[in-house]
Amino acid sequence: MSEKRRDSKGWVLRNGEIQRPDGKYEFKYTDAEGGRSVYSWRLVNTDSLPPGKYACEPPRDIEKRIRKDIEDGIDSNAARKTTLNSIFDAYIEMKFEIRLSTRTHYKYMYTKYVRDGIGAKNIASLKNSDIKRELFVTQTRKKLRRHSNKSERRFFFRTLADIT
Predict the structure, then answer these.
(1) Does pTM top 0.70 for this prediction?
(2) Of 61, 85, 92, 129, which shows the fewest CB atoms inside 10 Å?
(3) What SS3 state is found at 92?
(4) Residue 161: its pLDDT value, please?
C-alpha cells in the first residue's frame, strides 16, 4: 500500500495539494479553461503564518469554494472579473417580455442609483446585504422617500435580486 503524502508539519496532503520548497502550499485544479493553481502560506485556517508572511485564504477553503463553483457550473475566475454593470447590461438586453417604457425606466433607475455605486463591484464579492445597504443609502442621502416611490424599491429588490 502506498504511503500518504505529508507536508513538513506532518499533515496529510489531499489530491491536488503540494507544499513547495519555500513552504508555500499550492492547490492545483482543472476548470473549463484548463489547469489553474492557487497559493497560500497556510494549509488550513488554524495553521500559523510563517514570520513576515501575509495572510491569505487557505487552500482547503479555496478548494471547497472551487469545487462548489464547478458543481454549480460557475466560472469563478470570470465571476471575479465581472461587474454588476456588465451583468445588468446583458440582463436588460435579454429581457424581451417587458415593454419599452419599462426597459427605459429600468435603465434610468439603474444609471441613477446603482451604476456609479455598487455597479462597479465584482459580482463574486457582492452580497444581498450590499444591495440592502445601497437601498438604505439611497433612501437617506438621495432623499428617496420610503413609501412614495414603490417603483424604486421594487427595482432594487426585484431586478437586482434577479441578477445576483
Answers:
(1) no
(2) 129
(3) helix
(4) 61
84/156 Cα distance (integer angstroms): 13
C-alpha cell at 133: 445597504
Check residue 7 and report its DSSP letter. -
Helix (H) or strand (E) holding 30: strand 25-31
Helix/strand number for the chain, H first, E second: 7, 3
Is residue 49 within 8 Å of residue 41, measured between CB atoms?
yes
Cβ neighbours of residue 27 closer than 8 Å, sequence gap 6 or more: 16, 17, 37, 38, 39, 40, 59, 62, 63
The answer to whether the beta carbons of residues 29 and 22 sit under 8 Å apart is: no
H or E stretch covering 49: none
What's the one-letter identity of residue 155? F
| Residues linked to residue 122 through DSSP beta bridges, in sequence order | 83
Residue 122, phi then psi, degrees to nearest 5: -70, 145
What residues form DSSP beta bridges with 38? Answer: 27
% the chain with pLDDT above 90 = 0
Q: Which tens digits make up the pLDDT trace of 118-158?
A: 888 887 777 778 877 877 777 776 655 555 456 666 666 66
